Amino acid sequence: MNKKIIISLFAALLLLSCQSETKKPNIIIIYADDLGFGDVSAYNQGTLNTPNIDRIANEGIRFNNGHSSSATCSPSRYALLTGTYPWRNKNAKISTGASLIIDTSQQTLPKMFKKNNYATAIIGKWHLGLGSGKIDYNTKIVPGPNEVGFDYSYIMPDTQDRVPTVYIENGLVKNLEKEDPLYVSFKTNFDNQPTGKSNPELLTTKWHHGHFNTIVNGISRIGFMKGGKKAHWSDIDMADHFLDITKSYINKNKNKPFFLFYSMQQPHVPRTPHPRFVGKSGMGPRGDVIVELDWCIGELYKTLEEKNLLENTLIIISSDNGPVLNDGYYDDAVEKLGDHTPSGIFRGGKYSLFEAGTRVPFITHWKGTVKPNVSNKLISQIDLFNSLSSIIGSDQKTHDGENLSSLLLSGNGKEREKLILEAFGKTALKMKNWVLIPPYKGSAVSRYTNVELGNSKDYQLYNLNDDPSQKTNLKETEKEKFNELLETYNEIINN
User: Fold this and answer.
1) Distance of CA 424 to CAs 80, 371, 445, Å?
2) CA angle, 215 then 294 then 256, to 5°
3) Within a 13 Å sphere around the CA of 103, how many CA atoms are in the beta-carbon half?
4) Beta bridge partners of 185
5) Which residues sit opposite 362 in a β-bridge?
6) CATH assignment of the domain containing 426
7) Residue 67 lies in a domain
8) Cβ–Cβ < 8 Å for 160, 269
9) DSSP code for 224
């Protein structure tokens, strides 16, 4: 290790020590939904402009080799909040009206922070299941975010393209009237309610696949819903709404340490930018909601600045998985893409075992503590539990996560040596610059999303240093390396 790196690490640890002796830092995780590595202009890959995210990246650390734990949303969120690989839990898969997939006795990030006298909140997308069986949305819904450690929760239950299209605050549906109860089903329709399939004339956005059930705000969703009219959200106002709740939370808790999970819905489908963002990207709704997302993050930054909180707040920006264009609706994401490259130079995207499935934007910022840097070292969201625990002076840790606090705060020092990647229950190994993908049945390319999934009848071995786009399978020519990775993969999977 050279002298410059040693000095940098020492400085980061010294500052960390000083902070722990005084006031503990606020922690804010800003979690985008389906935002690709190339969707943030700080990464110099695509053609979109994200000035607010770029500012945070330029003032902090931009990780070029940061990963989500899965190529799909619910498993990634599970891993981030628990520090546990999602493939260890058979229920940690894409949730649709399912029961809570986090065991209430399990270690979680918010529980760890609560134990260390933090206020804890989630605002935005949840998508980790609710309740423990059939949900009655007309009563208090438990267990949920509050039962796994969040003092305050203001969420959409699953995703914007699924019913119920309502907000839930601390287990109760917001603005629900007793005289108009809410009914939800993912099997059968209610009283011949209009659907995207039966009533296409009522749609403002045409569905492409799967999203053809109950219509709300001119958009057909996954699943069926009846009633609860006053509780229905406004899609175009969703970003502003979550932002207002977030700013209010920060203002109320500015005098004590807090952990905030700001879980954004953009650029997940249906892409419904507020009218003031429509047309701003030139790429249709997908580009427009990324512009909207960037604006929201800029407004959050301004709030922290106005409240004099930047010097005591660690901000982490990332995404739950890689990008996807057509994910259920015709919204010009493909047609208006132009020269933009959401995945950057990497292969695949959301749902994929290839690199773009999990290599996502990963940025840290802490004014006065984190110095501007660019890091090529491997880090995963699964490491946030152990790393943040160390940063706030806690001794709690998880089995699968690693303590990479020095890397998180400096961009230098210890990195993760090996990482299991996951997509739809299928796993692969990343070890330094090498990736091993075992053989899996299934289509090579998704018929609906046109994403390369990574499925093959044979093992695949790639050297990302020489071949970042994973074009050349080296399984036959690099026998020694293949055997090394296969042995490591089996050890981790079976441990």
Assistant:
1) 17, 37, 14
2) 100
3) 9
4) 224
5) 318
6) 3.30.1120.10
7) yes
8) yes
9) E
Final residue of a structural domain among 396, 417, 438: 417
Provide the residue type at 150 as one letter: F
Burial zone of 85 (CB within 10 Å; 0-12 exposed, 13-18 middle, 19+ buried): buried
Residue 199 lies in a domain: no
Inter-residue contact 216 to 165 (CB < 8 Å): yes
CA dihedral in degrees (65, 68, 70, 76; nearest 10)? 180
Neighbours of 433 (CB within 10 A): 15
Q: How far is 470 from 462, CA to CA, in rounded Å? A: 6
401, burial (CB in 10 Å: exposed 0-12, middle 13-18, buried 19+): buried
* Statement to judge: residues 165 and 269 lie in one domain: yes
pLDDT surpasses 90 at 340? yes
3-state secondary structure of 314: strand
How far, in Å, CA of 495 to CA of 483, rounded?
Answer: 18
| SS3 state at 189 | coil
Q: Are 364 and 374 in contact (CB under 8 A)?
A: no
User: What percent of the chain is modeled with pLDDT above 90?
Assistant: 94
pLDDT digits 0-9 by tens, 32-77:
999 999 999 999 999 999 999 999 999 999 999 999 999 999 999 9
Number of domains in the chain: 2
Domain co-membership, 289 together with 425? no
Strands 373-375 vs 61-63: parallel, antiparallel or unpaired: parallel
Assess contact for 408 and 364: CB atoms under 8 A.
yes
| DSSP H or E stretch at residue 246 | helix 238-252
Which residue, 385, 417, 449, sits at the end of a domain? 417
Q: Which residue has the tokens 């000095």?
A: 7
Residue pair 290/267 in contact (Cβ under 8 Å)? The answer is: yes
Q: Where are the alpha helices (DSSP H) in 48-143?
A: 51-59, 73-82, 109-115
Structural domain of 344: 3-172+238-417
Do 358 and 396 belong together in one domain? yes
Quick one: CA dihedral 313, 44, 64, 2, positive or negative? negative
- pLDDT tens for 3-31 read 554 445 555 555 455 444 447 999 999 99
pTM: 0.95
* CA distance to 54, 246, 297, 462, per residue, from 301 (Å): 12, 11, 6, 39
| Type of residue at 243 | L
Main-chain dihedrals φ then ψ at residue 230, nearest 5 degrees: -70, -20
Residue type, 68: S
